[in-house]
Amino acid sequence: MRPHIIIRYIGLVLLLCSGLMFASFLVSVYHTDSAQIPLLLSCVLTGLMGVFPMVFVPSSGQISHKEGYVIVVASWILVCFFGMLPYALWGGEFSMINAWFESVAGFTTTGSTILKDVEALPAGLLFWRSSTHWLGGIGIILFALVIVPAIGKVRMSLSRLEMSPLAKSNFHYKSNKTLQVVILVYLGLTVVETVLLYVFGMSLFDAVTHTFGTVATGGFSTKNASVGYYNSVAIEVIITVFMFLSGMHFGVLYVIFTFKRKKWYKSSIVQFYFLSMVIGVIVVTLNTWGHNYDSFSEALRYAAFQVVSIGTTTGYGTADTTLWPPFSVMLLIYFMFQCACAGSTAGGIKVDRIVIFFKALKRQVLKLQHPQAVIPLRVDGLPVDDETVESVLLFIVLYILILFVTGLALTAMSVDVTTAFSASAATISTVGPGFGEVGSASNYGMIPDLGKFLLSLNMLLGRLEIFGLMLLIYMKSWR
């Protein structure tokens, strides 16, 4: 590997991060708040670290797949490190570990927070906090779907695991075209939702920051009560719709919005995603009606928002779900595992893997019945090779193992079982809020410092599809 080439590409990412810090600084200047100096210093330091490689390191037209892996993983880690600087320099509730946790939660679009009083933060810092969502959301797609597959024309594991058969069929473009598709959809969703939220009662600042959290399926809010602060059905409906859309594969959204003649609605992935959400909303509505809410419409309102919020890993809240019946809580935990579609900004196991898992299960049963039969596994008529099926099953096993180990470690730190389990699940799925002491009406401030560090690793594992971060452990085997 060539370290100088890796450093140059990482410098590009740091420059982008520095640009958003400067935008946050301008917001801070406009509001004349206390975040001006922390944001400016962070911007200068991050910018210098990004510009040096661009000046002193020569460019290279092609890089190896090993270098590509290191670039992707190192970029996420370093962006999270430099992203914590504005928090640490500002102070308040941000100790070093809290600043690191908040930064990782932002860039990985997890949305977990250690803040007891979000509204105490100055506007510039709130904007930076939401900007980390927006940058992290589009960043993972650009890396996984554009930069990584283009490196040396090598099909890399990060891209292969992220891309289901449906995802591949919707990105049969050259790299430049794929880049255009991603940017058009991402920016389109951002602009339209911002306008709608502003029209229906949010301030422009809140509309932008909440849009960043929605489109990136992150969940950072500028209010302690999250979206529940506004108590507006219109705002909740808008955010619910855009959370659902942001959980779909961006290639599918491009087909929908450009009125292509492809029959995207016949996709088993899209159908499973849509039906699972609808069934979840209906079941939770019926379960909470008469228990937590007197009217059916009120139960439907809160059930729809929370199911879609958890199911797309966004994590916004309008209700304290820890007070819901155990059946509804368990259903939300299932959606915390399943989450949305590959090719979106969502984390978790993803609908695509769930569909492949059930098809693999069905094929195994058929093989037991007909040992000599050759039974191909297909999704929407497209064959899924055994290597992909194996990687899907291995991912699910690793996902559950990491969840268990992290939860076990937290209980060793005197964290109660419900909190430990849900915090582990919520972070590796990049959902954000869990249950118990880390519920939608609470925060992660009570977790011990070592626990926060472990959970931040969970977030990175979840965002990098587990294998991405694990590759660094086996770097010796690359030689």
| DSSP, total strands | 2
Count of DSSP-assigned helices: 20
CA-atom Rg in angstroms: 22 Å
Mean pLDDT, all residues: 86
The tally of structural domains comes to 1
State the helicity in percent bands. Answer: 55-70%
Task: Work out the strand percent.
Answer: under 5%
Keywords for this entry:
65% helix; 479 residues; mainly alpha
Structure description:
It is a single chain. With 479 residues, this protein is an all-alpha fold. The protein has one domain. The protein is built from 20 helices and two strands. The chain has a two-stranded antiparallel sheet.
Question: How are the secondary structure elements laid out?
Answer:
Elements: H1 3-30, H2 36-56, H3 65-83, H4 85-90, H5 96-107, H6 123-150, H7 157-162, H8 165-169, H9 175-199, H10 204-215, H11 233-246, H12 250-257, H13 268-288, H14 296-311, H15 326-338, H16 351-369, E1 378-379, E2 382-383, H17 386-412, H18 417-428, H19 449-463, H20 467-470
Antiparallel strand pairs: 1-2
Helix pairs in contact: 1-2, 1-3, 1-6, 3-5, 3-6, 5-6, 5-19, 6-9, 6-10, 9-10, 9-11, 9-12, 11-14, 13-14, 13-15, 14-15, 16-17, 17-18, 17-19, 18-19
Would you kindly provide a brief summary of this structure?
This protein is mostly helical. It is 65% helix and 1% strand.
